[in-house]
Amino acid sequence: MTAFWPDIPYRPWRETCSALHLYTQIVGKYRLARSPWVNHSWHATIYVNARGFTTSLVPDRPGGVEIVLDLLDQAVIGSCTDGRTARFDLGPMSVAAFHERFVDLLRKIGATAEFHGIPNEVPDPIPFVEDRAERPYDADAVTRFFRACVCVDRVLNRFRTSFLGKVSPVHLFWGSFDMAVTRFSGRSAPLHPGGVPGLPDDVTCEAYSHEVSSAGFWPGGGGVDFPAFYSYAYPAPPGFADAAVEPKAASFDTTLGEFVLPYDTVRHSSDPDAALMAFLGSTYRAAADLGGWDRRRLDCATGIPRRPRPL
Questions:
Q1: How far is residue 297's CA from residue 235's CA, in Å, rounded to a whole number?
Q2: pLDDT at 2 > cutoff 80
Q3: What is the per-residue pLDDT across 109-155, written as a single tens digit (0 to 9) for each?
Q4: Backbone φ, ψ for residue 104 (5° rounding)
Q5: For residues 21 and 17, what is the distance between their CA atoms, to the nearest angstrom?
Q6: What is the per-residue pLDDT for 1?
Q7: How far apart are CA 197 and CA 122, in angstroms?
Q8: How many alpha carbons lie under 13 Å from residue 111 in its C-beta half-sphere?
Q9: pLDDT number for residue 165
């Protein structure tokens, strides 16, 4: 299956991307505040849907609430299971203004408008209500980013099918603003040292309680100033950084401690889906083989529509 992978250079929309990141944090913190804890913080994430990002159904009065960031019509939409809905438009505004409008939206649909008010995993975090600097909003760039996320979501979900062990959903972590899918060996991991900026150590330690091979996608920012795919292992087995992976443009970033593949390498390839699958598969095999995972028990063929998994 092929599809158009849009051009999403980071620098032209960097300020809009930063604003969108903080908006997803506000929406994500609402879900986090209302959802029972699931291992590795999977209860806090948001997901790609047909129009943007969704919280899925959040347990809240009177039965459940869904928040959608519609990145085609550029709006935030709240829906309650009793039929109430509310919305406001996305556009140039401050983070404080977004927070105020979001809280008002929650109250209009009868939701609980109480959640943590400080960003996570960003340098020098400013409480949402105090962040009054005007932020730009490049709607075209946001929509192109969403369409890229649709492509990434499709391939990550296909990659997810070829693993029988514990594997995460494909989801967006609003703290680090990355889409990810994570495979688990089934073995416990050494206690993580913590120290992730803006993230409580107990959250980090619980997230990495077991051995993982994790891969995903950033729009840019943090350690890279371009959209990129990444893959890492925790704990990283000896020799992981020197492993041969595909495609050739992928390399190990010693500062980040993970393999990085530029999004544009995938976008410009003759078969972008296949190029990304090669990166995901080769970095997983490096982590699993060097880490001594029981791949005969964990691996399976990639899923095919309407065809049951052969035994």
A1: 20
A2: no
A3: 999 999 999 999 998 999 999 999 999 999 999 999 999 999 999 99
A4: -65, -40
A5: 6
A6: 44
A7: 7
A8: 32
A9: 97
Burial class for 193, CB neighbours closer than 10 Å (0-12, 13-18, 19+): exposed
- Give tens-digit pLDDT for 240-257: 999 999 999 999 999 999
Average pLDDT, the chain: 97
Per DSSP, the three-state class of 114 is coil
CA dist 114 → 26, 121, 189, 259, 300 (Å): 11, 20, 34, 38, 43
Residue carrying structure tokens 């995972």: 293
Instruction: Give the pairing of strands 228-234 and 258-262.
Output: antiparallel
Task: Record the tokens describing residue 3, joined without a space.
Answer: 């599809």
- pLDDT bin (cut points 50, 70, 90) of residue 222 is confident
Q: Which residue in 271, 177, 186, 192 sits closest to 230, CA to CA? A: 177
Q: What is the torsion angle, in degrees rounded to the nearest 10, for the CA atoms of residue 9, residue 179, residue 122 and residue 45? A: 140
Classify residue 85 by its DSSP letter: E
> Which conformational region is residue 213 in: left (phi greater than 0), alpha (psi within -120 to 50 degrees), or beta?
beta
Listed in sequence order, the DSSP H helices in 161-217 are 201-207
**Tens-place pLDDT, residues 148-184:** 999 999 999 999 999 999 999 999 999 999 999 999 9
Torsion angle of the four alpha carbons 143, 146, 148, 153, in this order, in degrees rounded to the nearest 10:
-160
Question: Which phi and psi angles does 141 have, rounded to 5°?
Answer: -65, -40
Does residue 195 surpass a pLDDT of 70? Answer: yes
Chain centroid to Cα 100, Å, comes to 25
User: What are the two backbone dihedrals, phi and then psi, of residue 53, each rounded to the nearest 5 degrees?
Assistant: -120, 145
Rounded to an integer, what distance in angstroms lies between the CA atom of residue 173 and that of residue 176?
6
> Encoding tokens for residue 70?
């519609």
Cβ-contact 145, 71 below 8 angstroms:
yes
Proportion of the chain above pLDDT 90, given as a percent: 96
Distance, CA of 110 to CA of 85 (rounded, Å): 10
Task: Say which residues have a Cβ less than 8 Å from residue 265's Cβ, sequence separation at least 6.
Answer: 247, 249, 250, 275
- Tokens encoding 28: 């994500």
